[in-house]
Design a protein that fits this description.
By secondary structure, the chain is an alpha/beta fold. The chain contains 12 helices and 11 strands. The protein has 2 domains: 2-124, NAD(P)-binding Rossmann-like Domain (Rossmann fold); 127-155 and 182-242 and 255-272, Rossmann fold. It starts with a strand and ends with a helix. The protein binds NADP nicotinamide-adenine-dinucleotide phosphate.
Length: 272
């Protein structure tokens, strides 16, 4: 009776591992680099690469519930190995699966849809943790520069994790696709102001023109595809990104965490 968490060293996966440990659940964390995992001592760490399913045998042994990411590699390419992953999970005796989807579906969701494993899909538009992209400019210059200042119902990574944990340990979530948001909409300028309040210093907010934004992304070495994606997102975010949904509270029984809370928890990262 073990729960295997993939993406366990990442933003959401780390929170899933912590919350499962808090609930006294037996957790195994998957990583491509066990020596760098920095997970709690009580967590069993297993080597495995989701892009190379043959490496996953030991990690899946005795696993009855599985949290899956849908990308493989540091370029976030969608996994092509969905059918193998689902076949291995079924053979191992997995009965519950939660999946953190990206913006586009991958072979993982396709394979799950084609099979009869009970699974729960988690969908989000924007993580609160994306504000960590502002760390360097806040620390070094006391400024945040963004393209587009649209409101977004950003979600705390611990709330995504709380929904995943519910899906992994409780009955009644199989077959659900949960669209997850935070409890309020905030523009980037409002989020920057809240970080400044927590730090006790004013952080300037500068809105970039499209040209300035493209130039800054080129200077940061981003690919053409990534630049195009980010520009479209900044100019025309999806309507869903500014709609607050009650899903987190309905599933977990507690209201979604606020950005003020996220900023307080992460203040140290923004301090010089
Ligand atoms: N950021 C947003 O606003 C947003 C919004 C909607 C959806 N999403 C989705 O959320 C997901 C990102 O989640 P996150 O931010 O929690 O991830 P993250 O912090 O970037 O963490 C990446 C994790 O993936 C693992 N990983 C990468 N390739 C792997 C492979 N081949 N085999 C096994 N593990 C692998 C890494 O493990 P090791 O390095 O330890 O092996 C690490 O734990 C993406 O699917 C993204 O599309 C993000």
């Amino acid at each position: 009776m073990t729960i295997l968490v993939t993406g366990a060293t990442g933003t959401v996966g780390r929170q899933i591992v912590t919350q499962l440990v808090e609930r006294g659940q037996p957790v195994r964390a998957l990583t491509r680099n066990p020596s760098a995992a920095r997970l709690p001592a009580s967590v069993e760490v297993a080597y495995g690469d989701l892009a190379a399913p043959k490496t996953l045998g030991p990690a899946l042994e005795g696993v009855t519930a599985l949290h899956l990411i849908t990308f493989g590699g540091d370029d976030y390419a969608p996994l092509q190995t969905g059918p193998d992953l689902v076949e291995l999970a079924v053979k191992a005796g997995v009965r519950r699966v939660s999946v953190l989807s990206g913006w586009d579906e991958s072979s993982v969701e396709e394979a799950l849809r084609a099979g009869d494993l009970g699974w729960t899909q988690l969908l989000c538009v924007e993580f609160m943790a994306n504000a960590l992209d502002w760390v360097t400019s806040i620390r070094d210059e006391g400024v945040v520069r963004v393209f587009g200042n649209h409101p977004g119902a950003v979600i705390h990574e611990a709330d995504i994790a709380a929904v995943a944990v519910a899906a992994l340990v409780e009955e009644g979530h199989a077959g659900q696709a949960y669209m997850l948001t935070g409890p309020e909409t905030l523009t980037p300028a409002e989020r920057v102001r809240m970080i400044g309040e927590v730090l006790g210093r004013e952080i300037r907010f500068e809105e970039l023109s499209e040209e300035q934004y493209r130039a800054s992304m080129r200077a940061a070495g981003e690919s053409d595809d990534m630049i195009e994606f980010a520009v479209q997102l900044g100019a025309n975010p999806p309507e869903a990104s500014a709609v607050v949904l009650p899903t987190v509270e309905e599933v977990t029984g507690r209201p979604g965490r606020t950005f003020a809370q996220w900023a307080a928890e992460n203040a140290a990262a923004f301090r010089p």
